[in-house]
Design brief:
Layout: E1 2-6, H1 11-22, E2 26-31, H2 39-48, E3 53-56, H3 62-69, E4 75-78, H4 85-90, H5 92-113, E5 117-123, H6 146-164, E6 169-175, E7 177-179, H7 198-206, E8 213-216, E9 228-229, E10 231-233, H8 234-247, E11 254-259, E12 265-266, H9 267-278, E13 284-287, E14 296-297, H10 302-308, H11 316-329
C-alpha cells in the first residue's frame, strides 16, 4: 500500500514507519516537529535500507494537506497530536485546536482526496477512571483530562463519519503504555523537557539526567503497594498498526481495538527491571499518592488477537534492555 503517516518522526510514528517499510509498504510521512526530530526518520531510512519521503507540514494546513493526499494514498496512519496530560490541563484550548481541529482538517482533506482508510492512534485514556481490570473495548468511555477528551472527541468524529458514509473503514487503536525502543538503539523515545511517563524518567535517572524517580504512592491494593500498568514494547505496538492496516478492509465502519500486553507491571517492578538492564541501582523515593491515579489498569487484548491476529511478543526485561540501549547510546536523545 501507499501509506501516509502523520506525526511520522515521533516516538511511535518513527517505529511504525520502520515496520511499514520492512513490510513492503510505500511510506510518506509528515510532521511539524514541535515535539520530535527529523533525525529519527534519517535513522529509519538507515535501518530499513529504504527511502521514505518526509514533509514538514501541520495538520491544520488543510490546503497543503489536501494537495498531498491528492497524490493518491491507500490509507492514512494518524499519530500527530499533542500528548502531555499536564500540559493539556494548562492549555486545554491548544489541545482541542491541535488534536481535534487538526484531525477534522485531516478527515476533510481525506474526503476531498477520496481516501477513506484510516488507522487512528487512540489511547486507553478514553476509559477514564478504571475501577476494575482487565479493560475491554466495551468499558464505558470517559475523560479525566483534556488530553483524554481530545481522543474521545476524535473517536466520536470517526464513528459519526463512518456511520454517515459507509465507504469509510477506520481502526481506532486504543493503546496502553508504550515503552522500549528499536533493538538497534538507533531510534527511541526523546521527550522534550521533563518526561511525563515512567519509563523515560526511570531511564533518564539511570543515565544521570535526573536525580531520582518519584514513586507516587506505595499503599495501593496491589502486590507491592505501587500502581500497576500495562506496558507494551513500542515495536510490538508498531506491528499492531501494520496488522490493523492489513485487516482494514474487514472493518465495519469505525471500530475500536485495544493494543496492550494483557497484564500489568508495578512501578517497583519496572524500576527493578530497568536497574537490571542498566546494571546499576536506580534511586527512587516514595511520595504521596497523586489525585486521580488508579491502582491498576491493564488491557483485555483478546479482540486484537482475534481481529488483527496480533499479540505482544516482548516482555518487561526486553522492554527495559532496549530502552536502556537507546538511552545509553543517546543520552541527550536526538541531541536537539
Amino acid at each position: 500500500m501507499k501509506v501516509l503517516v502523520t506525526g511520522a518522526s515521533g516516538y511511535i510514528g518513527s517505529h511504525t514507519c520502520l515496520e511499514l517499510l520492512k513490510a513492503g509498504h510505500d511510506v510518506v510521512g509528515f510532521d511539524n516537529f514541535s515535539n520530535s526530530s527529523p533525525k529519527s526518520i534519517e535513522r529509519v531510512r538507515e535501518l530499513a535500507g529504504k527511502d521514505m519521503r518526509l514533509e514538514t507540514l501541520d495538520l491544520r494546513e488543510t490546503e497543503k494537506l489536501t494537495a498531498l493526499l491528492k497524490e493518491g494514498f491507500d490509507a492514512v496512519v494518524h499519530f500527530a497530536a499533542l500528548k502531555a496530560v499536564g500540559e493539556s490541563v494548562e492549555k486545554p484550548k491548544l489541545y482541542m485546536e491541535n488534536n481535534v481541529g487538526g484531525t477534522a482538517s485531516l478527515l476533510g482533506a481525506m474526503e476531498i482526496a477520496g481516501c477513506s482508510r484510516l488507522v487512528f492512534s487512540s489511547s486507553c485514556t478514553v476509559y477514564g477512571a478504571v475501577e476494575k481490570s482487565p479493560v475491554g473495548e466495551r468499558h464505558p468511555r470517559a475523560a479525566v483530562n483534556p488530553y483524554g477528551q481530545t481522543k474521545l472527541d476524535i473517536e466520536d468524529m470517526c464513528y459519526e463519519l463512518a456511520s454517515e458514509d459507509k465507504s469509510w473503514k477506520i481502526a481506532l487503536l486504543r493503546y496502553f503504555n508504550p515503552v522500549g525502543a528499536h533493538e538497534s538503539g538507533r531510534i527511541g523515545e526523546d521527550p522534550k523537557g521533563i518526561p511525563n511517563n515512567l519509563m523515560p524518567y526511570v531511564m533518564q535517572t539511570a543515565v544521570g539526567r535526573r536525580e531520582f524517580v518519584n514513586v507516587w504512592g506505595d499503599d495501593y491494593p496491589t502486590p507491592d503497594g505501587t500502581g500497576v500498568r500495562d506496558y507494551i514494547h513500542v515495536v510490538d505496538l508498531a506491528l499492531g498498526h501494520v496488522a490493523a492496516l492489513s485487516k482494514l478492509e474487514e472493518f465495519q465502519g469505525a471500530q475500536a481495538v485495544n493494543l496492550g500486553a494483557g497484564r500489568g507491571y508495578s512501578v517497583l517492578e519496572v524500576i527493578a527491571a530497568a536497574a537490571k538492564a542498566a546494571g546499576k541501582p536506580i534511586p527512587h523515593k516514595i511520595m504521596p499518592r497523586r489525585a486521580g491515579d488508579a491502582a491498576a489498569i491493564w488491557a483485555d487484548a483478546s479482540l486484537a488477537k482475534k481481529k488483527l491476529g496480533w499479540e505482544t511478543k516482548r516482555g518487561l526485561d526486553e522492554m527495559c534492555a532496549d530502552h536502556w540501549r537507546w538511552q545509553k547510546d543517546n543520552p541527550e536523545g536526538y541531541g536537539e
